[in-house]
Inverse folding.
């Protein structure tokens, strides 16, 4: 499997990806790092939604990613919920140094199931992996949750750029596979054509002096 960055406007797939999670977990910084290879220590809360676009190549397919960064505050949930409907995939972020943000992962997961189409792929990301001394959630706790709900999981650091590229490339590969599977499952099967027993038909016609018709009005088929 090969991954490549491309600026080509043409693409084979267009994916709308939503990034959700509690306020302050690092959704904006991970998107800035991926889209522009930029990191800032200044925290500015996202108001409503914002998005970035980047086109990447997964194997031989060009995938245009429209990645939506959403506000984590409760007062914006009514606005954000409308963006779930057409999402091809959702990334749920939590802060490895904040237990509450991990506890709330399940609430965000329920939001996905409530608003997104059924079987929408979900990717779980633990942020701020560079802050090892402040880590509050063990890998085993997270892995148990991810395995229970069959969600892919990866730990990232926007500051050191650890696994940022990998999480989006891996998730894009998942979206390509999912899209292809959905297209196959919705592809109409060819209707079986009715067959005519020609030999049987000849026998039926030959047995009637009216060529298979009785009284000139009713015909056998």
């Amino acid at each position: 499997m090969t991954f490549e960055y491309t600026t080509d406007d043409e693409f084979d797939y267009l994916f709308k990806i939503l990034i959700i999670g509690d306020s302050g977990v690092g959704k904006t910084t991970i998107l800035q790092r991926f889209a522009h290879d930029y990191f800032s220590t200044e925290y500015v809360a996202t108001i409503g939604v914002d998005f970035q676009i980047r086109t990447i190549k997964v194997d031989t397919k060009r995938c245009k990613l429209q990645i939506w960064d959403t506000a984590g505050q409760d007062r914006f949930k009514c606005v954000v919920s409308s963006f779930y409907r057409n999402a091809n995939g959702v990334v749920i972020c939590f802060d490895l140094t904040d237990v509450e943000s991990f506890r709330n992962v399940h609430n965000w997961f329920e939001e996905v199931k409530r608003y997104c189409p059924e079987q929408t792929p979900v990717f779980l990301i633990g942020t701020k992996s560079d802050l090892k001394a402040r880590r509050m959630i063990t890998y085993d706790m997270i892995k148990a949750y991810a395995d229970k709900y069959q969600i892919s999981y990866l730990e990232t650091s926007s500051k050191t750029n650890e696994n940022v590229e990998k999480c989006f490339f891996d998730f894009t590969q998942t979206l390509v596979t999912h899209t292809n599977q959905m297209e196959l499952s919705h592809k109409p099967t060819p209707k079986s054509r009715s067959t005519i027993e020609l030999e049987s038909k000849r026998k039926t016609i030959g047995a009637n002096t009216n060529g298979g018709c009785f009284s000139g009005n009713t015909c056998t088929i």
Remarks:
- Residues 164-185 form the longest helix (22 residues).
